[in-house]
Amino acid sequence: MFIKTVRGWEIPERDATPESLMLGRRSLLAGAAGAALLATPFAARAQGAPRNPKYDAGRELTPERDVTTYNNYYEFGTDKSISRAAQKLPVSPWSIKFEGMVGTPRTVDLDDILKKVQLEERVYRHRCVEGWAMTVPWTGFPMRDLVSLAGPTSGARYVVMVTLADPKTMPGLRSPTFEWPYVEAVTMAEANNDLAFIATGLYGKTLPKQNGAPIRLVLPWKYGFKSVKSIVKVTFTDKRPTTFWQGIQPQEYGFWANVNPEVPHPRWSQATERLLGAEQRVPTRIYNGYGDYVAGLYAGMTNEKLFV
Questions:
Q1: Where residue 51 sits, what CATH number does that domain have?
Q2: pTM as predicted
Q3: Contacts of 55 (CB under 8 A, 6+ apart)
Q4: Is 20 helix (H, G, I), strand (E, B) or coil?
Q5: Is residue 10 assigned to a domain?
Q6: Which pLDDT belongs to residue 46?
Q7: DSSP state of 89
Q8: Mean pLDDT, range 2-29, rounded to an integer
Q9: 238: closest CA among 183, 158, 184?
């Protein structure tokens, strides 16, 4: 007897868009409308990006107001009310430097990057290491597309990403507690995983400054501090780097930072999470519920602290 296992992202066939409609829509986009898309301002493109039904978060969306007013962005302050201060963030023009183990080190304008990728919307669960969570519709493109554009050499094992550090507009940089700039990293295998996403929009709009404009990383199976904001540099290397929080408190924040309800933070439990915009706590799921996608990445890593 054949038994079908339904994965977390699958939807019933009755809810799927008919194939004839999908093929007709693709043909339209591939024609004149698709060509015009490249000339459209990004804000309009973000509004028109189709939602990918493969990524069903299984929860209602968090209200936009909560997502855009409750933010961790330490370059602008250590509390959650930094949205007003973050409006000073300069986001245009914007470029990203590709360096390290790449075929051709270079600096690429963000607009040029966006002309070479296909935008889509994905609804992801987001889990902060502090114990709160949200469900967000991100606009963007797979991280593997950014990796491909960078052109890493075969020996590269890690992707290191750096956030903008601008003393003129970021008052948090004056804090002696932290060593700037903010640096995060993933393995090449993680970067090329289906879930790894580069976000440039939120709720069908251009990505707000307080949420990491104009381009950030989204890794929904990891704690939120791994999803670096306002990326200005991407370096490929064969050596594992020390990341921002790992360098400050290595006993509390490790390199991997995968979500696991059974592994507490040294100062609090990770068994449950508080949903923004809702007066409730819900159980936390291992890998934030995305184990079908990513558990295989860590097979055999018995000596690694995968969940700290």
A1: 3.90.420.10
A2: 0.87
A3: 9, 122, 123, 124
A4: helix
A5: no
A6: 75
A7: -
A8: 44
A9: 158
Beta strands 106-109 and 197-202 are unpaired
Q: Tokens representing 13?
A: 């066939």
Residue 126 falls within a domain, yes or no? yes
What digits encode the pLDDT tens for the residues 196-247? 999 999 999 999 999 999 999 999 999 999 999 999 999 999 999 999 999 9
Provide φ and ψ at 166, rounded to 5°. Answer: -120, 100
Residues shown for the chain: 308
- Is 178 a domain residue? yes
Q: Which two tokens stand for residue 94?
A: 């914007």
255: DSSP letter: S
Q: What's the domain count of the chain?
A: 1
Which amino acid type is present at position 146? L
Which of 98, 85, 79, 110 lies closest to 230, judged by CA?
A: 110
Domain extent for 134: 46-298
What is the residue type of 108? Answer: V
> How many whole angstroms separate alpha carbon 102 and alpha carbon 251?
33
pLDDT value at 22 more than 50:
no
| pLDDT digits 0-9 by tens, 144-192 | 999 999 999 999 999 999 999 999 999 999 999 999 999 999 999 999 9
- Distance (Å, whole) CA 119 – CA 28: 16
Q: For residue 247, what are its two tokens?
A: 């360098």
Task: Enter the tokens of residue 283.
Answer: 């159980």
In a domain, 19, yes or no: no
Residue type, 298: Y
- At 236-294, the pLDDT tens digits run 999 999 999 999 999 999 999 999 999 999 999 999 999 999 989 999 999 999 999 99
